[in-house]
Description:
Distance between the termini: 26 Å
Mean pLDDT: 91
Shape: globular
Structural class: mainly alpha
Number of helices: 10
Low-confidence stretches: 313-321
Order of helices and strands: HHEEHHEHHHHEHH
Number of strands: 4
Largest sheet: 2 strands, antiparallel
Strand order of the largest sheet: 1-2
Helix content: 55-70%
Amino acid sequence: MVIIMFKNKxxxxxxxxxxxxxxxxxxxxxxxxxxxxxxxxxxILVAQGHFxxxxxxxTETGYEMISQTNIIGMFIQEIVMIFTPIIAWKYVMKxxxxxxxxxxxxxxxxDLSVGLLFGLVSMxxxxxxxxxxxxxxxxxxxxxxxxxxxxxxxxxxxxxxxEEIYGRGFxxxxxxxxxxxxxxxxxxxxxxxxxxxxxxxxxxxxxxNLALVGLLFAYMYLRSGNIWMPIGYHxxxxxxxxxxxxxxxxxxxxxxxxxxxxxKNTILNGGDFGPEGGLFxxxxxxxxxxxxxxxxxxxxxxxxxxxxxxxxxxxxxxxxNED
Length: 323
């Protein structure tokens, strides 16, 4: 019974345990590094007089340091999210990175480029629709430049890499051993939505849209055999949403070139969660499936066939049964 719980009929450790182990390591390392960073900053704040332990008050400089620390923490989280599944896949599971969709970028630079353009165009269409329907308004069309434009570009590059390497590359590739496409698509997409489940402004429609865009990213990998298109889309989708058009990104406020506001929360504009919580984004995501299907219309990649260990195990079982 214990063996059945941990291993499937092919004698492989069940995908759920692999995902749980890597997720646990990711959370533990992130928490550890975050705690160390917090302790160091806390000592500096007290030593420099920016935090009064008696009144629990910060100076203005102290608040700025806390804000900068939070950003550093986000960088740390994404870096850990990138390397944890890579190390597990390559050095523990001893599988080639190309087998989890992380092919050489030079080989698939076209997919990356199309993904970057795809995300940019998709979010631009959402922005235009929100403005034309008075679901959002631009307070000033004069661009406002700040250091956030560069800092968040770097951060969103890491977010695109981290969430796609983990959510699509690792999770989908581990689930491939089930030889069940619906399970691969649904589980990875729901998992992606739940990653954002504690964000500000979260609700039913935002969760549905997150699951849908996760499904779109999964479909890209399923058809192409690499994760470069979803990485590209993810980067520009977030960056243009937040740091160009000035919307909230999955409930998180950022400083954009434009200052865009939503006067009233509606089912179209997504309210406090940002455009990702609205029906315009739902429509754009659904149209995205049509584009991906057309773009990869000549692809001969077989997602399930790229799991040689399972195929070998199946063949072995069949031979044993024949004997």
